[in-house]
Structure prediction request, 440 residues.
Amino acid sequence: MNTRVHLIGICGSGMSSLALWYQNRGFEVSGCDRSPGENLAELKNAGIAVSDEHNPSHVEEIDLVVFSAAIPSDHPEIMRARAKGIEVLRRSEALAELANASELLAVAGAHGKTTTTAMTGWILQETGYNPTVMVGGEVKAWGGNFRSGSMRTVVEADEYDRTFLRLRPESAAVTSFAIEHLECYGTPEALSVAFGVFLEMTRPGGSVIVPLINRDLARWAERIDRKVITTGPDGSVFCRFIEADPWQQKYLIDGIEAKLPLPGDHNLRNAETAIALSSTVGVKTEESVRALESFPGVSRRLEKIGVYGSAVVLSDYAHHPDEIDAALQGVSQLSDGKIGVVFQPHLYSRTASQSEEMGRALSRADWALVLPIYPSRELPIPGVSSRLVVDASIRSGCDCRLCAFDELREVLKEKMAEIIVFMGAGSVDCYARELVEEIE
Prediction:
């Protein structure tokens, strides 16, 4: 009889892919989620039963319960499972059990880890490795955020909730380092140490990949004889930009000229990390760059979702100032015309600490509309609102103003642009798609 696993909060990005992975490994899978969202269809298509209610009866015939970080540990289903002696795991613990039993490649980083994970999986797929891939965004060619495959696995390793510290990869990559998730680490120094420990946890004989500018993160891994591969300008793996065409860019690596069907310097950095990580399982550089020429991209990463008036509409997940800046640099390769941004700040705490940098980054656009903050898991903080971002952006010279959701349609009719980017990690993507669908 197969092991029966029940996932609480199953429709979250990380949980839904975990559910599919369990199913791929032969488990009987069920789950529940009061806010099913867009991942529900993928789960139903896979034949996984999902309830939109929580009830302790869900765990009566279950062998293992897994819950997401958003679920409190005193949740009635968890309490019932423990009372019955059923094994209960946090998502990070469940992920580690599955991942550490495979031939694991792990990708961490403040920015770029989703695209880099997908790129690495795509390279391995196109070169015949048939990988299992677990990624934080939708890859349409895979029908979602999970690719079922062999025991060769590529996983996006998230620093939130210290998830990545439970993994024991054969090879590990860090795409970038920035101050994020201090609610989990307390100080920037502790966050830096955590990234170093993640790399140090690479198995004996393994490799670690880091940007040359962050090479210090790998010092402990190097002391225990893990091979260190550096990326970026003057690193050992570097994609040198040649020229941009709309929606693709030419680059040079190891004397090989290639095309990447994504704009932006940040995507060249993602590509070189994926090429380096793939090399650790034997994929040659030329095989990797040819594979990436057909890479389909990841949803909400400069994703073209339609038109609004005469403007092309893109959706992007950027919510950190570095990501906003990188995304708008990439958009600037697409057009010499005006660029507008509809930005939704994510989290009160992030807005409080980074509003000045957010406003400065938005000033790359010709105009910006800033929506109310998407709170996610947080309660409001007195004095913190989207006004902080608007004021910072105006100080940086941007044509920027506050905009409520209910006035967005009318305001956009007065704005001229060749490209409008709907940007943020919250609900802004849904609004963008609704607007585009209305026009269509």
User: Anything to note?
Assistant: The two ends are 50 Å apart (CA to CA). The mean pLDDT is 94. The first strand starts at residue 4 and ends at 8.
